[in-house]
Amino acid sequence: MLRGLHSLESCTYNGMDMRVLERQQARLKWLLQQQDYVVQNNNPVELCVSSVPQFQGLIGGNLGSGQLVELKMPEVYLGSDDFHKLVNLSVAGPEFGISKMDLVPPEGAADYCISRTSSCQMTARTALMKEGGEGVILEKIESTTGRESFNKRKAEAVADDKCKERRIKGEVEGEPEVKTKCSKEVSRNPSKENSKVSEVQKPDYIHVRARRGQATDSHSLAERARREKISKKMKCLQDLVPGCNKITGKAGMLDEIINYVQSLQRQVEFLSMKLAALNPSVEFNVDNLPVKEFPAYVANFPAAAKSPAVANLTCLQFNPLQKEAVSCMLDATMPLPQTSTEGIASASISIPEQAFSSSCITQLQAFSSWNTDPQGLNNAYNMGFH
Amino acid sequence: MASLIPNLEPNPDTSPEFQRKKRRKTEKRPGSFDRNQGNQRIKRWQTEREQQIYSTKLIEALRRSRRNSSSAAGKEVRGTADRVLAISAKGTTRWSRAILTSGLSAGAKMRKHKKANINANRRLRKPKINKEKRKLPVFKRKLMVLGRLVPGCRKLSFSNLLEETSDYIAALEMQVRAMTAITEYLAGSSGGELQPPADRLGSNVNS
User: Fold this and answer.
1) How many domains does chain B have?
2) Are A30 and A4 in contact (CB under 8 A)?
3) Where is this region: Disordered (chain B) (predicted)?
């Protein structure tokens, strides 16, 4: 094995793609051979774990350096029980912190090794190895368009997995550091997703099945929940505000909402002005209202009870302030003897109705003395006392 | 006389609806931001009964204020109407609490002082060079505008603001409906429309 390693090493320092291909093939074969070792020897694997940080650093360093050559080294050591190799690798220079390296399970299928490597390495090769097709790997290796493209493909490959497991945030954050060359956005997802695909052996994980094609980071999950909450509330608002069905987008909706609230407030303002204008005509007009319908109101109590706001007002008006109302009415109408007959009649109408109470009758008589429209008054009387 | 007043006033003992409301109250308070409870609250504003209660209270309040200060200021009426609306909300929402506490002199004075200070400082400092950048956060601008419209919601998160806005809109709609009914009725009566009282009673004035 050591010899094989040395041969690989000799190859690594050339850094040419063709060599890489050769190395890949050699590595694959080697790894398959290593399966037996992995199955048999659990302990070394565990020991490897202890040196994992170094290992991870190595891998990270390799990635950071951007030399495909060096990347191969860690792959070689996966599942191996050769500590010498590990030591050699450690020399390579751990520049990066924790990158994810999960242990190869004792079952030690080649797939795991492959997946392991893919979790650490950001090259398409490793990702494809994870898929398990050598031919595929080779094909993709040939098209060395760049890490970004590889990463994208890897993302696609990973996204094909419908089920992903969520990792602790800290671990995921370690991933992006590894990729210095690739654009962070592109690399981040595949790195995270890769790490998630690999085996979990730490107990603190919360496993959540994410939806297809969506990141499963705790941050993004929380973001998604928040966004859904907001969209629910926006829909609720859409139902309230008329004419918002066609508008999509929060900004447009906000505009509509603002306009609607402003219009409602203006309406309230206008209505309050109107109410204030109505007030002087009657001692709080309300008191007059019942006057008109008082007789009928009393007669039709159940009907009044059923009618809405109107009846509401009438019941309120029925209070001992009637006398006040009458006096005010008189005050209001007295200075207007020259107004149109209609106006006076209208004013008088309420008074005759108020005359329902005995105390008002005298006032009514006084009023009728200067009423210019006796007929109107009579009519009012008739109507009032129906 | 009191016996003649129909049972439209919010008498907690008698009406079953009100008892239901009481039960609902205890359920609502703990999770005021829950979806269902928010919907329940909003639907409450759209009921006929709520409008009746509001009209009753409004008329009472207006009468009282009329007695105290016989000025027919529109602002006064508006303030009364808003406060009665806030009372009808039973303090479950932020805007209602803000309306009720806005009358306190401390709050009003604070705002005046703040405005004065800000303006003074602006003039003393150099004029801002990069005025273009002010309008950049368009979305946030709109949020601020909405926050200023809804009382007491200036510094609120987006989702909370939306919740408050929906409740506020429902309440405002009810307020407009109730005040329209009142004004129409009063205008109708004071305008002297001669309708037979039976008809008057039979027909709901505006509906």
Assistant:
1) 1
2) yes
3) 1-48
Q: With bands split at pLDDT 50, 70 and 90, how would you rate the model's confidence at B170?
A: very high
Its domain, for residue A229, covers: 221-275
B199 domain residue, yes or no: no
Record the tokens describing residue B188, joined without a space: 């109708």
Check pLDDT > 70 for residue B40. Answer: yes
Most confident of A119-133, A297-311, B97-111: B97-111
| Dist CA A200 CA A210 (whole Å) | 16
Residue B152 lies in a domain: yes
Amino acid identity at A261: V
How open is the CA angle B149-B51-A244, to the nearest 5 degrees?
45
A378 — contact with chain B (CB < 8 Å)? Answer: no
How would residue A371 be classed by pLDDT, with cut points 50, 70 and 90? very low
In chain B, what residues touch A233 (CB-CB under 8 Å)?
A: 159, 162-163, 166
Q: What pLDDT was estimated at residue A41?
A: 54
Q: Please, which residues 200-239 of chain A have a Cβ atom closer than 8 Å to chain B?
A: 226, 229-230, 232-234, 236-237
A280 to chain B: nearest residue by CA? B72
Chain B contact for A336 (CB, 8 A cutoff): no
CA distance A356 to B159: 57
Residue A266 has pLDDT above 90, yes or no: yes
Taking the CA of residue B30 and the nearest CA in chain A, the distance in Å comes to 19
Residue A231 domain-assigned (yes or no): yes
